[in-house]
Structures are given as structure tokens and as C-alpha cells.
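Q: Convert this sequence to C-alpha cells.
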Amino acid sequence: MSIIAQFLRHPLRTGAVAASSARLARAMTEDIGIETASLIVELGPGTGAITDAILPRMGPKARLVLVELNPALAARMAARYPDPRVQVVQGSAADLVELVAPGTVDVVVSGLPWTVMPGAVQGRILRAVDEVLRPDGRFTTFAYLHAARTPLARQFLEQLAGQFGSQERGATVWSNLPPARVLRAAQPRARQTPLDIGSGGSGSKRQ
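A:
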């Protein structure tokens, strides 16, 4: 069964009809500090749609770690990006703290399909992201609009708010298939002192 047929039959269980569009990739990677970052992590790079938007923004001394669970895709990404700034790691995003030193990452970009994951897995990954980010680190991901009202989508947003002091809803990319909204977060809880959390814990949410 083709991916399109799977999506039409099970739209809430199938992550996407196609790889993320270039427009969504640009929306996810702009204004999050990639240009000045020393270490960037991308979760679930797949075939490289978002990676292609990250690389032109990176500085010459920056490093990009791609964490891909699928061995075949990881091997393909390693062959596609011989750039010495890029490191491909075959592994789970939930094990991120074992792959990258805690508190060292400037930006985490995620292309993972959150609404097809159990809530416990969502939580493990978000906690790992929180742990590896620097105090001023940024996290960006996206959510498909067709699944926005599902329990797993709502649970993801609740867990995101629990791990980060600031959350922001970015641009909606209607031309993506399916349409998707960019989500951003900052102020990782693991990197804030109790005073920091108290002063900014309510976060900022822009519709």
C-alpha cells in the first residue's frame, strides 16, 4: 500500500503523505539562532528535507548531529552529506542524552511525527531534548493540522509546556502535505534555576 493510500485510510496514524516541504523546512529553521550556533541536533532527518535548510545557515565551525532511528535512512544520510560538519548517528531520539553531552546543544530541530507516538515516548524525547540544550537553547518542531485536536497532539503540547518555560506557535505552512504549523520552545526547565522558572515559568504563547 502506498504512503498516500495509508494516509487516506489512516490519517491519524500515518505521519505524512510526503517528506516535509522546503517551505516548511525554511519556516522551521529561520530565526532560531542556527547562524550563531556551535552545535545543532536534528531528530528524525529522514531523507534530508530539513537538513538541506539547516546547512546553508550554519557557520563554518558549527557541527550538526543527525539522529536517525532507521538504519537504512541513516546510511543514506551519511552518504548524502560528506560535509565534515555533519555527523550521522543511528539511534533513538529518546536516547539523546547518551548521544550528545547534556547542556551543550544550541538548537534542536525535530521532524518527528509526534501524533503517532505514545505519550510516554513523547515525554522521554522531550525530556532528553531538555537535558541536552544549553540554558539559552532553542527547540523547533512542527505539528500537522489534521491531527491537532487528537489526544496525542494535546498531550504533546502539554508535555512541551512542562519541559520549556516558553512556547511559541509559528507559521502555518498550508502548502505542506499535510499542512503543518511550526512550534518553537525555549527556556529548557533542566537548565533553569528555580528563580528563573519562577520569573518566566508562565511562558509566552503566541497564536
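The longest helix spans residues 119-132.
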